[in-house]
Automatic annotation (TrEMBL):
The chain crosses the membrane at residues 6-27, 34-58, 64-86, 111-129, 199-221, 228-252, 258-278, 285-303, 309-328, 340-359, 391-408, 415-434, 454-474, 486-505. It comes from Leucobacter alluvii. This is 4-amino-4-deoxy-L-arabinose transferase-like glycosyltransferase. It holds the Pfam family DUF6541. The lineage of its organism: Bacteria, Bacillati, Actinomycetota, Actinomycetes, Micrococcales. Keywords: Membrane, Transmembrane, Transmembrane helix.
Length: 655
């Protein structure tokens, strides 16, 4: 465990990156307390995302100082707008809370809330850190070839724009837009801490889980369910109890952009809940300030991953529909005109439907199939088993208790939460259990009709219900203590920490943890980078000049030399637009002779070395590149270093 001390500088840098810009602007928005803390991360990610575009357009190099400068400019402009135009006072609990209720929080309540936020951070860091295994481990998965190399590309180019990051794969610009929010964040962590790309990636993962996802869940559930230590504790305990998120997005793919994007949603959804007046505890945030906050969060969601923005839109549908129904009914009773509500609702539905049709990947990228029958999918969803093969019994039971409580309450917030649960059920059943490809693509194509991505989205609907279930149980049991506060507090803590232990020891969460650990570990037969290959990559800076290019089959992990050693490679990802020179090298390098067309291609690409990581490819793929194979028998290259079967050659055939 002592090896984790080495990640502390990077973790502190990651925390600063995802909090400081947001805290600056949050203060300018006059947010305070939990709202300031929980919104800081999503605001910061949005500022970083917007900075990536702005700095690229004006030609300023990407880095921590330039992003801080943009943040300060935003903070000043927003502060002037909010204070002098919106006349927004410092946020506090509104004056129109129920009679007799205190304004703000007591000292004990504030201490409890801070303790809860600390608890949620500790739980998230402990759970995910244990799963990752070591600070410098990497996800041994297909997508990570791009994600790690893209961070290094941002650092080298000094540009994190979503319009430029695709140039790594396609120098001709064929990729166009690629969501770069995650890579922008991690690159700033490297810039601030000097950590390696793998360590900075893990540090950012821990910080996002602790300070964005965890705090966002506490904010969302308190906004939906009200104040009280029972709600806050329940949110903290359950934020890391669902195998489907955030664990699954770290294990599968690895889908870092969706992990970050989905983590932003709880805070954004809390803003929407306040906009439509569904807050259990109203605040003095003025309507223009709320709209400004929501509009400010949208770029972060869109540039981190458009699928996250669409997931937020899907989550808001039940809430907006319930608000519309109630608003139209109330106006009809009061004799007020209904057309403003009808117009707003239609604009939302039409605009949302247009985005639903437009914001989706090409059909050929959404190739995942259903895996179970519709009835089996329904059963999986209701029991919270989903596709992981283990049923999280405690979590599943609490979700069902929450459903029952919401049905009994049947107020507008409860109905909206049930609507979100129903919508999540539909999305999951369609993705997992409907064999008709066209229907699945039409409904879930935004998320590649991919079951794990849909699983993660369902947590946004089921987790608040689980918090409702657990907090209801806690309150009912604590009520038995009557006026004996010490006993009531002991019962509250006892139940909460009992559930914490039960969920963290649950076989389902253990299975998710083990799955991540296996995917992140270095071994002799690792899918992407073996222990021998890692050792060789760590020596590359001593062997290969900074301006040299390394050839290699990217499918074997050889392209990871870019992220590990900052040496340019011919295949920084496997999904790449090859140049004619690179194609020629892949086919004929082992036969290079002076004066040939091949040697001209090698010179044009500045290829001086070749990494041979054998024939094992990620995802068990097979790609023949004759020019990079059987190099031990070639006179065109000279072996200069090796570790086991991993070999580094110098190109000498053109000398």
């Amino acid at each position: 465990m002592t090896e984790w001390f080495s990640i502390v500088p990077a973790f502190l840098a990651a925390s600063a990156v995802i909090l400081i810009p947001g805290l600056l602007i949050g203060v300018a928005l006059r947010l305070r307390g939990l709202w300031l803390w929980a919104a800081a991360g999503p605001i910061a990610v949005s500022v970083i995302a917007m900075s990536s575009v702005i700095l690229s357009l004006i030609g300023v190099r990407w880095g921590a100082l330039s992003v801080l400068a943009v943040s300060l400019v935003f903070a000043v402009l927003i502060g002037m707008l909010v204070r002098f135009v919106f006349k927004q006072p410092v946020m506090r609990i509104a004056d129109y809370v129920p009679a007799g209720a205190p304004l703000g929080l007591s000292r004990g309540a504030k201490i409890s809330l801070v303790g809860t936020l600390v608890l949620v951070s500790v739980i998230m860091v402990g759970r995910i850190g244990r799963a990752i295994g070591a600070p410098d481990n990497i996800s041994q998965t297909f997508d990570n070839i791009f994600h790690l190399n893209a961070v290094q590309f941002v650092l080298d180019q000094g540009d994190a724009s979503p319009l430029k990051i695709g140039l790594m794969n396609s120098p001709m610009g064929n990729l166009g837009f690629y969501p770069s929010g995650w890579h922008a964040v991690v690159s700033l962590v490297v810039d601030l801490s000097g950590a390696s790309v793998p360590v900075a990636t893990n540090a950012a993962t821990l910080a996002v889980a602790a300070f964005i996802w965890g705090a966002g869940i506490v904010l969302l559930t308190r906004t939906l369910l009200g104040r009280g230590i029972a709600v806050a504790l329940s949110a903290a305990v359950l934020s890391a109890a669902f195998p489907a998120f955030p664990m699954l997005m770290i294990a599968y793919g690895v889908l870092y952009p969706m992990f970050l994007g989905f983590s932003l949603i709880p805070a954004a959804l809390a803003v929407v809940v306040g906009l439509i007046g569904f807050e259990r505890i109203p605040t003095t945030l003025a309507l223009p300030t709320r709209w400004l906050l929501l509009a400010g969060l949208v770029p972060g969601l869109a540039i981190t991953h458009p699928g996250a923005l669409m997931a937020l839109l899907a989550c808001t549908v039940p809430f907006v529909l319930v608000w519309s129904f109630n608003a139209i009914r109330d106006r009809r009773r009061d004799g007020r005109p209904r057309w403003p509500v009808v117009t707003a609702s239609l604009a939302y539905l039409v605009g949302g439907f247009a985005m639903f049709l437009i914001v989706r990947p090409p059909r050929e990228q959404a190739f995942w199939q259903s895996e179970v029958s519709p009835m089996r999918a329904v059963l999986q969803f209701v029991t919270s088993e989903l596709m992981r093969g283990e049923t999280p019994y405690v979590v599943g039971a609490l979700v069902l208790v929450g459903v029952v409580v919401a049905i009994v309450r049947h107020d507008r917030v409860s109905i909206a939460m049930l609507g979100a649960y129903g919508l999540a059920l539909i999305l999951y059943v369609v993705a997992a259990g409907i064999p008709h490809w066209g229907l699945r693509f039409w409904i879930t194509g935004i998320w590649y009709q991919n079951i794990p991505r849909i699983e993660s989205i369902t947590v946004l609907a089921t987790l608040p219900l689980a918090v409702l279930g657990l907090s209801t149980i806690i309150r009912a049991v604590a009520k038995l203590a009557g006026d004996r506060r010490v006993i009531a507090g002991g019962l509250t803590l006892g139940i909460a920490f009992g559930v914490l232990a039960a969920t963290q020891l649950d076989p389902a969460i253990q299975k998710a943890t083990d799955y991540i650990r296996e995917n992140f570990a270095y071994a002799e037969d690792s899918d992407l980078i073996s222990s021998d290959e890692l050792a060789l990559l760590q020596r590359l800076p001593e062997q290969v000049p900074e301006d040299a290019t390394i050839a290699g089959n990217g499918w074997t992990g050889a392209g990871m030399a870019y992220a590990f050693a900052d040496r340019w490679v011919t295949m920084p990802h496997v999904m790449i637009d090859f140049t004619e020179n690179t194609l020629l090298v892949n086919q004929e390098l082992r036969d290079a002779e002076p004066g040939s067309e091949l040697c001209q291609a090698i010179a044009d690409e500045n290829i001086e070395f070749v990494l041979d990581f054998g024939e094992r490819e990620v995802h068990d793929k097979v790609h023949e590149m004759p020019g990079l194979e059987d190099l031990e028998d070639s006179s065109a290259v000279q072996l200069i270093d090796h570790e086991g079967e991993a070999k580094l050659y110098r190109v000498v055939g053109c000398d």
